[in-house]
Design goal:
The protein is mainly α and 232 residues long. Helix 3 packs antiparallel against helix 4. It is 72% helix and 0% strand. The chain has one domain. The model has no long low-confidence stretch (mean pLDDT 84). The chain has 5 helices and no strands.
């Protein structure tokens, strides 16, 4: 059996009509408010998940920084040793390979995913500003590693030009010395970026946005180690 409901009774006065309209409006407002509340809670949870992912990456990058700094120190000492030996007696030069020369790029997958999906706005402004700086230096690190690899190729192309480096002509030995110098400068630039990344990464983990004065002071400190390798 089909139930047939009577049509709603028409309002008999302006007052009843206004009450009916007001009921509908209030219902719509409540529905919209509930929807917005649910969306706000969802966005808050999304933002918290993104922030947690960024923090996890920053903690991983903290370990990568230590590894890369060890690589920088070992490679720079090795380059300077080879430059000294080559300059002292090029005819008897035998290159000493670096004991530790692998550089690992930093991880910024969470930032890239949030940026590409338009979710950066869900982060607090301070958090977004901190990790933007970290991500910028992560990109610079990748570019620096590529430049360093190109410099190393130039060194290797001269080292293996003959059966033995001792067979290099005076002009080729000079070119090799310049190639080592170029590689050393690339290492210095990489060290500069590493130092800056370490500073910004730690600031992000502590929830601190460095002032312009703090960034300038850190940049000056990093420049002091850019040109010269650390002492053994």
């Amino acid at each position: 059996m089909i139930d047939v409901h009577p049509a709603p009774e028409a309002a008999h006065s302006v007052r009843e009509f206004l009450i009916h309209i007001a009921t509908i409006v209030i219902g719509i407002i409540i529905a919209i408010g509930l929807e917005q509340a649910v969306e706000t809670i969802h966005h808050r949870h999304q933002g918290e998940r993104i922030e947690d992912a960024l923090r996890d990456e920053a903690l991983t990058n903290r370990r990568l920084i230590r590894y890369d700094i060890d690589s920088v120190n070992a490679v720079r000492r090795n380059i300077r040793l080879n430059m000294t030996n080559l300059d002292r007696d090029g005819k008897a030069f035998v290159p000493v390979p670096p004991p530790h020369d692998t550089f690992l790029p930093f991880i910024n997958t969470a930032w890239i995913a949030a940026r590409n999906n338009g979710l950066i706005t869900l982060l607090p402004n301070q958090v977004a500003a901190s990790y933007w700086r970290v991500n910028f230096l992560a990109d610079a690190m990748s570019g620096s590693i590529t430049s360093l690899a190109d410099a190393r190729k130039k060194v290797n192309s001269l080292l293996y030009l003959h059966a033995s480096p001792s067979q290099l002509t005076p002009e080729e030995r000079t070119a090799l010395l310049h190639a080592y110098s170029d590689e050393d400068q690339e290492i210095g630039n990489l060290n500069y970026i590493l130092t800056g990344f370490d500073f910004m990464n730690e600031a992000a983990l502590s929830g601190h946005i460095p002032s312009i004065a703090e960034v300038a002071a850190e940049s000056q400190r990093a420049q002091q180690t850019e040109a010269q390798p650390p002492q053994p």
